[in-house]
Every structure is written in C-alpha cells, then in structure tokens.
Amino acid sequence: MPYINLKVVGRLSKEQKEKIAKEFSETLLKVAGKPKNSLYLVIDEVTGENWAQGDKFFA
Length: 59
What we know:
The chain is of the alpha+beta class. The chain contains 1 helix and 4 strands, in the order βαβββ.
C-alpha cells in the first residue's frame, strides 16, 4: 500500500489534484507494479506564511 504525502505552497484546483493523483498512480503501476487503487495520496496545501526556505518565508 503506497502512501504519498505531498505538501505544496498555495492552493491547487480540483483538476490539478486529479491530474497529480493520476500521474502518481500511473508511475507506481509502471515502475513498481502497484495497482492504482492501492495508492493513498494526501495533498497538504500550505500557505506561504507557514513555509520557509532557510529564514525566508514564501508569503
């Protein structure tokens, strides 16, 4: 059972999330032989004020 937790800065549309899920599941099928319905994907949308690189925040 593959589990992916993807964190992104900002918001994604429903269509973008569906495309990401499709691409991840297709890649796991091709590379690891894992059936698409075995993938669990969580997308965390984080505001830039809560995400920093070094001491610089993205907001």
